[in-house]
Amino acid sequence: MTDPFGFELSRKGKLPLAVQISQGIGAAILEGRLAPGARLPSWNDLAAQLGVARGTVRAAYERLLDEQLITASGPAGTYVSQQLPAREKSVNEPEEASLADFFTGFSAPPKVFQMGVPAQDAFPFKLWSRLMARAARLAAAAPVSYPDPRGEPDLRRGIAAYLAIARGVQCRPSQIFITSGYAAALNLIIQTLDLKGAKAWIEDPGFPVSRKSLGLAGVGTVPVRVDGEGIVVTEGIAAAGNAAVALVTPGQQAPLGMALSPARRRELIDWARLSGAWIIEDDYLSELQLQGRAAPALAAQDDSGRVIHIGTFSKTITPTLRLGFVVVPAALMAKFHDAVACLSPASNATAQRAVAEFIRDGHYLRHLRRMKKLYRARRDVMKTRFNDAAPVETMAGLAVLLRLPAGARDVDIAARAAVLDMAPRPVSLWYARDDLRRSGLLLGVTNATGKHFDLSCTRLKRLIRDFS
């Protein structure tokens, strides 16, 4: 039966009639077919039009009220809300290849389940404010001259010391180059190594931003399957043994979370040495390994000078810093020095000085220790909340991965959750190959707290049931 809002009700479908009605009206609202302030039919009138029970329409309206798409004014009637959430683009629309749908609310507070952001409530604001104020005063009184394009010397010394202690990487400060985050670090490597037209292995699944960055730079990407030991090196060699580079997340695979096994590490380094290829190590969240001891950095095991290491402070301190770093083999130092001096000098000297002091005075390691304890507790809470809704398959960095029932589309659930001010990420977007693609939701654990968390868990579990 077709209802007044233009959708079909199916009495033989999997979804209850109330859910079908709420989704149909919700779609009409979000697509602009029902304008803000438009009056909706009463329960009785709509039930009569649709040929359903009054209670069914009431349940549908209650769902829409819960989603803040409609407002009830008692005897005055029920209306479309005047202030509606921004419409989320569907991944099925023409801009499917765009990464706009992958990100959530720039410059906005973190949403429930959002990945890639640290705990909002546990950041040492007072300490950080003092460090930034001191760094700003020093910057104001500094000699008027051009700063080192490689980055502030104190910060590069601090990073070198930290990497030696925490990641086993032995390097000199002169091998470290400060960048404006991960994307800038990857772009610097692509430009400096002149990879345009070359082939690059990428993990499948893997970080969509990395895949897109390589493609935009004219690098041909070769998706290589990931299993329980990490990237399957033999399949990469079979598919493109002549690739110029392999981009990997060996510490914690993004998004599945496993560490690259010792055997695969050796295979990967041997391939790069014998073929003259480079390995780009994205040290994704390795400093916040929540399960056991962190695996050593791949760069720490590289005895042939083929590994280029990328790290950032976005998830350990704050993404507002826009600070990352690249550690290059000694043979590439001069080449990278020329590239940063001419194309990409380090910026934000004030923030660099603050981070240098944060590391030098021991605050950084203490902060990481506190955050690991906090995130473990929040991860355990998250797993408890969702084990009855979908299998919590794995820890994926600072997120849990829920595998969904067969037929459930993670992109649809994520889009609907966004309307309710939640930000689960569909894991299917991380896959490049259709034959490997699987459905699931990545739920960030860092901000799994607060008065809205329990309600959000209930809402998301209900969405999973509705779309399964």
Sheet/helix structural class: alpha/beta
Reported for the largest beta sheet, the result is:
8 strands, mixed
Question: What gyration radius follows from the Cα positions, in whole Å?
Answer: 25 Å
Low-confidence stretches: 88-97
Tell me the span between the first and last alpha carbons.
Answer: 22 Å
What is the CATH superfamily classification of the largest domain? Type I PLP-dependent aspartate aminotransferase-like (Major domain)
Order of H and E elements: HEHHEEHHEHEHEEHEHEEEHHHEEHEEH
Helix share, percent? 25-40%
Rounded mean pLDDT is 88
Oligomer: single chain
Content of β-strand: 5-15%
Number of helices: 14
Number of beta-strand segments: 15
Strand order of the largest sheet: 4-11-10-9-8-5-6-7
**CATH level-1 class of the largest domain:** Alpha Beta
The CATH topology name of the largest domain reads: Aspartate Aminotransferase, domain 2
Tally of domains: 3
**Per CATH, which architecture of the largest domain?**
3-Layer(aba) Sandwich
